[in-house]
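Problem 12. The chain below contains 626 residues. Write out its predicted structure in token notation.
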Amino acid sequence: MQSRERKKNVIEILLDTGAISEVQYLKALDFSKQLNIDPLDALITRCGADREKVMTALTSLDDGMLFLNYLDANKIVPENIVSSIQKNFSSCETIERELILHGAMSEDELAAGLAGYYGISCLKTVSVNYAACSEFFARNDRKIFDGCGAVVGDFAGGGISVYITDTAAYNKIRIFAENAGYKVKFAVISFSLAAGLREKARAASEDDMDSAVRMFSVQGAQHSVPAAGEKAEMVKDLRRADLAGETRPVVKLLNTVIYNAVEKMASDIHLEIYGGRGKVKFRIDGVLIEIMNEISFDYFFAMISRLKIMAGLDIAEHRLPQDGRFEQKIESKPVDFRVSVLPSIHGETAVVRILNQQAAGMDLAELGLYGDGLKKFATAISRPYGMILVAGPTGSGKTTTLYGAIRSIAKISDKIITIEDPVEYQMDDIVQIPVNEKKGLTFSKGLRSIVRQDPDKIMVGEIRDAETAQIAVNAALTGHTVFSTIHANNVIDSLSRLLNLGIEPYQFAASFNLIVAQRLVRKLCASCKVIDGGEAASGGEFEGAAVYRAAGCAQCGEIGYRGRTAVFEILEMNDQIREMIIEGRSPLLIRKTAVESGMKTLRRAAVEKVKSAVTSIEEIDRVTFE
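Solution.
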């Protein structure tokens, strides 16, 4: 009786407002009865009603008063109570709570009446898919639901199930769902049941947080996630001793992640989301290691939001990539963080690059150069003019090598200018220029201006195009020392790449002092390395040497490696090599001649690291080959 009355009433209101036609009204009644669906769903999905007109009409409805009239018309609530509530309507919190306070209805009776009014189900027991709900709220504003007391029960296949307790929720959630493109299935539950579900959701999220934080050996953080438009307050100096008292879980997690990443000497922090659960990974010594998993979507989304604010990004933007940076002291040591946020099918992911300023202070020996290679490198970079090029893939340590080279030769009487994308390490008495392609400051434009600044030494972060290559070579030919990097596999590939960019062979031969190719290999943990008894360690290029392999212990986190060092392939531009380049000899022939003249290939240099018990066969096989 009640359901039938409500179905007629709601669509009659829409009919009166002109939002639907009489034919649509009659069809909606039939479809609602036949398919057991919400009459409003029937209107929009089955009867061709204009979605926008229906939503506009719903927005204008005072559903609380209509519900009260429904209860009065069906003699569910005494007339005197209805009159009292109507008289004091402006001071009422909600119609539903007033009915309970007046003793007119119990919670269960109210839920049943509301279900009849809307023509939807009334449930005494329900289940909630918390993982799916976390995923839903990572994409949508929770405040819409919390503000009207609605509880999301599930999220799947582009649809949501929603439990409501009063009239404030129904139209608000339906309008939200229509605008967002979600199908919504409503049911009514009691106030007490809704409160219990919200408490369970909160407890589940906090359990996830506690479990995540326990994966680390330390606790804590400092500040809560600021709201949109708020300034992100940050700790001046994040210390282990300060990491115990924070009670705000999102901040506890994020600052714990940052602190531990720096402590473990990670180069990158990866925040990834898959199927409703978040993960944290660290790139340590070039290898990605999963540190945490099973972070609830709510907390993961809040971590991303705080990270955005720390990096000066737009927290309201979820559909476009964003890049930013922030600076933080960790145990009194300055650390720069570069942040990249990217939308994925499961939600936003982020990568935080950790730029430890101490890395810029490494000398050439610490980089991994020694013996004849160190001598050649030091001689080349000390010359008053010419070009030094470092080649290798992304993440092979090229920029760190250049910083080490510049620091080793820097003196107050020299004007040194760098152009980088971005400036990774800040150095005193050196002019450092960040590339800003959005504003038109590219490597080539910046370099063209730098040569007019009377520099002695120039560092170009990367040679990417023909114009940059030509300006850099011309600078080297006109009395400047130029340092740069290029993406190439080895020294000969670098030669071919530059020739393909339009550098003439005679220019190349005249301008280049040295080309270096490099790779980073992990160093065996001194506390747990063991003799490698494998077949590969006893013969071939390792014959007669004591070869070690990784084992794993508490000191290295059971990985077997601690820290990295570089292996280098160095091509010194002697007269013979210059002549071959000018004559246009093939790269393979130039490589063969260089090896015969004493050049160590990357593989050979890596083998020497194995024989010196610095690294393992497995590690050099990962990064080098002949």
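Discussion. Residues 1-8, 217-233 have pLDDT under 50 and may be disordered. Students who got a different answer should revisit the alignment rule from Section 12.3.
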